[in-house]
């Protein structure tokens, strides 16, 4: 975690270097051999939100696993798992035989990501182009300085990458003066433009790789999720640390502080002493606090139980099998010209005085740890991250190479932090976070950010993925704050995934503007009997508690200033299921990307003239995918009072803040 107090939660720390070599090391002791001491490798150039879905939801699964306690092996805890160590190949892997999941079978056939059109990806081209335009907008004042010098945005659905754009500069600034807030730029001829294959310091996206490596060891029976970390690291004791579990390290519920200044220690022994001296600030399991120390500790555990260093594990277990040849710790010097520069590090904004950091890890602690750390240090490209995303969306397999079982991927995406609402977290992966996912956030969305300006979002509900890589600490971390580009890009990409009506025509759409609102008002109606009901089709995705839609009524004979009152209603999925009641007349959250049938009795207004309206509202900083309303009807047993699909009635609808949209 950065010392920068303005750092957004979930982003990694400050800066750092490291050598050009990538050493495997002969043993996996506590950071021994992990500083790049060897020859460099030539790599070459159900959720609990809104309407439920069938089966075992992630929230219920997380609660079930937590209830087990004690010894817990991944392959024994999840549906479809089997006893014994997991094989690394594809033969005999669970779920990959003739009766396995069709998605997995296709992945095991060797299918790879490919470039294609928006239509081939099942996306809307104009909104996909707007995604790139939004990323480009932050090259300008945001609000005063550029948010980043350059960026690469990649988006796709299924196995089609439909958007891959580079913009701005990978290297632009030569020096920064903190006293005057002025920079010295490289001459135009010496600047390096951003390219689609530019390599980025991925910062805290490293935590995802470390987490995948940990779950692999759980599959093989070497690591237990509910075991205390001290079982694997005898020195990890004192002040309550001895009860911290592997799960708490992976979900940031250990109670440890956010970071410690390892870069102030000159030796590995001193760095270890610093870690051993750290005490939990709260009782483990009682609080969520994002902490780099969690993943640094997990690195030590992995190195001890495998006898290999973290960089060797990354190469052998993830990047080599998946063909991610531009992803590694400590990139060689030959990569420097194709790598995005990060910060010009000077005190006091940095803990070290390193000048322009370029081709070496930005995070000071990762730099002090030799460039190889569990919390930061991995470099990679947008395409390689798309490969990782596709692997996880396909249940742990890519191009015929399996790195995880499907049940293990489900574990990565299971919310273990149900006790900390808003801090949904799987094993290493953050879940359902609007603050950087934007409208891509659903109860199934998983991802992470990195302090250097990186982010990855996966949405299994739409089989889509989004990568945004920016060098936002170039020239200095103080030029940017928050996640505005990530949110804006996520909003537009979410809009690129169409919502279709059954009849294929347009429906009323709320839009996805933060702070937006609107009303869809029917003409005055007079139900003759207590059997009158309003019915319509609705589809919604709103930030829980900060947006949604309401059904309201007002007595028409009380005049235009009569107060609007909520009308209770129920909704049921068009695919079937149990109706959900909304007694307050308002629905919020996520509806599961399924159209619902809404029904509202109008018993109270029998024999009285009433005005009815549907109102949408987004009250927070972030939005979901929006609200759609279609085929509004008010009927009694023997007559139809209002039907939107009758032209004469449709013309009497008063739409304000709603638009007709076919997607």
How would you describe this protein?
It contains 15 helices and 31 strands. The strands form seven sheets. Strands 1, 2, 3, 6, 14, 15, 16 and 17 form an eight-stranded mixed beta sheet that branches. Strands 18, 20, 23, 24, 26, 28, 29 and 31 form an eight-stranded antiparallel beta sheet that branches. The longest helix is centred in the middle third of the chain and has 15 residues, at 292-306. The radius of gyration is 27 Å and the shape is elongated. Residues 1-56 and 62-99 have low confidence and may be disordered.
In DSSP terms (H or I, runs of 4 or more residues), the helix count works out at 15
Q: What percent of the residues sit in helical stretches (DSSP H or I)?
A: 10-25%
The number of distinct β-strands equals: 31
Strand content bin = 15-25%
Backbone shape:
elongated
Quick overview of this protein structure:
The protein is α+β, with helices and mostly antiparallel strands. 21% of the residues lie in helices and 21% in strands.
């Amino acid at each position: 975690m950065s010392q920068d107090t303005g750092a957004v939660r979930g982003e990694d720390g400050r800066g750092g270097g490291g050598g050009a070599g990538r050493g495997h090391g002969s043993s996996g002791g506590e950071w021994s051999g992990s500083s790049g001491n060897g020859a460099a490798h030539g790599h070459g150039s159900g959720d609990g939100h809104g309407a439920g879905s069938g089966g075992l939801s992630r929230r219920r699964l997380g609660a079930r696993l937590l209830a087990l306690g004690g010894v817990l092996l991944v392959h024994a805890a999840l549906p479809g798992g089997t006893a014994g160590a997991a094989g690394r190949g594809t033969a005999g892997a669970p779920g990959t035989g003739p009766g396995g999941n069709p998605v997995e079978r296709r992945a095991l056939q060797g299918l790879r990501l490919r470039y294609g059109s928006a239509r081939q990806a099942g996306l809307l081209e104009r909104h996909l182009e707007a995604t790139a335009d939004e990323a480009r907008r932050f090259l300008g004042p945001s609000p005063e300085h550029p948010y980043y010098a350059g960026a690469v945005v990649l988006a796709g659905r299924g196995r089609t990458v439909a958007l891959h754009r580079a913009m701005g500069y990978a290297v632009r600034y030569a020096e920064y003066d903190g006293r005057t807030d002025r920079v010295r730029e490289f001459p135009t001829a010496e600047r390096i433009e951003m390219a689609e294959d530019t390599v980025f310091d991925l910062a805290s996206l490293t935590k995802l790789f470390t987490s995948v490596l940990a779950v692999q060891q759980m599959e093989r029976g070497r690591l237990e999720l509910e075991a205390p970390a001290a079982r694997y690291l005898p020195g990890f004791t004192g002040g309550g640390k001895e009860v911290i579990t592997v799960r708490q390290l992976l979900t940031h519920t250990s109670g440890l502080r956010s970071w410690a200044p390892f870069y102030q220690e000159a030796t590995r022994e001193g760095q270890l002493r610093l870690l051993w001296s750290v005490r939990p600030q709260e009782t483990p399991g009682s609080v969520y606090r994002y902490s780099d120390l969690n993943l640094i500790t997990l690195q030590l555990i992995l190195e001890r139980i495998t006898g290999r260093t973290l960089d060797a594990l990354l190469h052998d277990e993830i990047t080599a099998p998946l063909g991610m040849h531009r992803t590694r710790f400590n990139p060689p010097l030959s990569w420097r010209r194709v790598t995005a520069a990060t910060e010009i590090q000077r005190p006091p904004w940095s803990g070290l005085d390193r000048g322009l950091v370029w081709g070496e890890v930005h995070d000071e602690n990762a730099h002090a740890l030799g460039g190889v750390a569990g919390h930061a240090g991995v470099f990679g490209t947008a395409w390689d991250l798309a490969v990782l995303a596709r692997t996880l969306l396909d249940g742990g397999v890519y191009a015929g190479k399996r790195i995880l079982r499907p049940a293990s991927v489900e574990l990565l995406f299971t919310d273990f932090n149900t006790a900390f609402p808003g801090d949904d977290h799987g094993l290493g992966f953050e879940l359902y976070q609007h603050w950087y996912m934007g409208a891509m956030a659903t109860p199934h969305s998983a991802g992470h950010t990195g302090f250097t300006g990186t982010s990855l979002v996966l949405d299994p509900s739409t089989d889509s993925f989004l990568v945004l890589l920016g060098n936002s600490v170039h020239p200095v971390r103080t030029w940017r704050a928050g996640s505005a580009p990530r949110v804006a890009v996520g909003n537009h990409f979410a809009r690129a995934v169409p919502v279709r009506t059954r009849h294929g025509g347009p429906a009323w759409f709320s839009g996805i503007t933060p702070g937006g609102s609107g009303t869809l008002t029917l003409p005055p109606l007079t139900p003759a009997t207590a059997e009158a009901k309003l019915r319509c089709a609705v589809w919604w995705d709103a930030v829980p508690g900060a947006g949604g839609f309401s059904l309201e009524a007002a007595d028409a004979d009380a005049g235009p200033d009569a107060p609007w009152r909520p009308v209770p209603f129920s909704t049921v999925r068009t695919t079937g299921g149990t109706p959900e009641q909304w007694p307050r007349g308002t629905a919020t959250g996520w509806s599961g990307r399924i159209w619902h049938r809404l029904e509202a009795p109008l018993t109270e207004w029998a024999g009285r003239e009433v005005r009815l309206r549907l109102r949408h509202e987004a009250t927070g900083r972030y939005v979901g995918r929006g609200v759609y309303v279609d085929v509004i009807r008010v009927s009694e047993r023997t007559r139809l009072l209002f039907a939107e699909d009758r032209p004469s009635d449709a013309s009497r609808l008063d739409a304000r803040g709603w638009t007709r949209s076919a997607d």
